[in-house]
Amino acid sequence: MIPATRRLQPFLSRILRPRFLLGLGLVAASTAALNAQAGQLDPNFAIAGRGVAGFGSSFGREQGAGGVLQPDGRVVIVGASFFSAVDSDFGILRLTTDGQLDTTLGGDGNVKVAFDLGGTLYDAAVSAAVDSLGRIVVLGVADTGNGQYNTVLARLLSHGTLDNTFGVLGRVVLSSGGLAQMGNAYEVALQSDGKILVLGAIDTGSPTLQYDCAVVRLTEDGSLDTTFAGLGFVQLDFGESGSNSFDLCPAMRLLPDGRITVAGSGYWPGANDSVLARLMPNGSLDSSLGGNGHVRFNLGTDPTGVSALDVDGSGRAVVTGVVTGNGADIAIARLLADGTFDSSFGGGSGVEYFGFDLGGGFEDSTIGVVVRPNGKILVGGSVERNGGDFDFLAMRLEENGDFDLDFGFSGFTTVFFDLGPDLRDMASTLLVRPNGDLLVAGTASRQNFIEEEVAFTQLLGNEALFEDGFESGNLSGWSSSSP
Predict the structure, then answer these.
(1) CA nearest neighbour of 182 among 166, 197, 204, 167
(2) Distances (CA, A) of 413 to 140, 319, 326, 365
(3) Among candidate residues 189, 271, 258, the one with its CA nearest the CA of residue 227
(4) Cα 292 to Cα 288: distance, rounded to the nearest angstrom
(5) How far apart are the C-alpha atoms of 224 and 175, rounded to whole Å?
(6) How far is residue 13's CA from residue 9's CA, in Å, rounded to a whole number?
(7) What whole-number distance in Å separates Cα of residue 199 and Cα of residue 183?
């Protein structure tokens, strides 16, 4: 266990977790109390700040994975909708600004997309983006048989039908050349020119179990963009060798100048590091990061690697991950644009550690991080209470890495759904509205880890209208909202 971890006493769980009833009952606390502080459930979203929905599964199993905010404030959540224990399709649902199913998508608020390439017919979406025309680009994986998967994409028109100008009948399968071995998909992002960036991992095939991070760029119609690194994709190998050695990068950010930052982990037998890489718009490595376009760094004792990334207006990368020992604690680090730790964060070390240990559980994790224009850092994830009982987690930090004591209970909030005996509510995506409200989505399990539903919650941000801008006299920091 990391000595510097900020440990929170188990008794706090009773303060943090007032018994709100979802679906069959409503919130016991008053609306006035909910509005009193940032980090409280938004009483005007879904049912008193929380909701569950699905993609229309006939098997009763729905899993939320990724999501995106549309410019008009509606929310797209994607994942998997199951027809059996193994057969599933992409599931896409859309919520209105107040958290209700948006029936303009597919007629009832959700649609499914099948690839059915072979094997178990398992198709699952993991990430989504929305373009300037309102089209929804969805990234995921599809089983091809023999334990192999392809990275696949679909594009939907705003009302939910497949866009036939994309790929073949609205679908793209990345299966040419080395991309045939790209069975891990993580994130999709859209450039301002309509080109599509995909982050995943390629199985190099030799030695056994060796992976490289991969960034792919497609043209607007779904074809490989060969102006990107000559092939349309870049493989990133951070120096591991031998079997059971691999690089996995689950996080990507597209910078305003067109450069691409990715973060993840480099594993090899007996050790692992976190990694950060930056590409130029043409796919070449950006040598201003670490001298060769990437850096390796260590988050602490027994790190499991980076799970989320954001880049602030100064080019500093904020990454989140987990360090293990007696359970798992959250690690958050900030690196300068050159790849060195930022000494203004984490008491000079560049890294902060957080252990919640609520109710006897020790497994904490993160799934998203967003740096706000005022410098504050929002983090989403999950915390374990006891014996597999998990809740959603939201944190807000000051710019230096300290808890923002004006958010939730001394800097964090937990949210539960508890739909059945499993008590397993696992977050998978963090979205932040322009006003600082946080939306965390994922999966809530009912029982046997088979009956599951898409779950989502919105927390108030209550960001100060004139923070920074007022004090400095710089009116650019002002909100257009009325005081």
Answers:
(1) 204
(2) 30, 20, 23, 14
(3) 258
(4) 7
(5) 11
(6) 8
(7) 11
Residue 479: what pLDDT?
Answer: 28
Q: Write the DSSP string, 47-77.
A: BTTEEEE-S--SSSBEEEEEEEE-TTS-EEE
Antiparallel, parallel or unpaired: β 50-53 and 62-69: unpaired
What is the rounded distance in angstroms from the CA atom of residue 124 to the CA atom of residue 415? Answer: 25
What is the rounded distance in angstroms from the CA atom of residue 227 to the CA atom of residue 316?
A: 28
Which tokens belong to 149? 């998967």
Give the pLDDT score at 53.
96
Q: What are phi and psi of 409, to 5 degrees?
A: -95, 95
Q: What is the pTM of this model?
A: 0.89
Q: Decide: residue 19, CB within 10 A, 0-12 exposed, 13-18 middle, 19+ buried.
A: exposed
Contacting residues for 51 by C-beta, under 8 A, at least 6 apart: 22, 45, 95, 99, 100, 455, 456, 457
Four-point Cα dihedral 83, 85, 90, 94, nearest 10: 80
The letter for the amino acid at 308 is A
Supply the pLDDT for residue 363: 84
| Tokens encoding 27 | 């919130």
- What are the CA-CA distances from residue 36 to residues 40, 43, 66, 403 (Å)? 8, 11, 30, 18
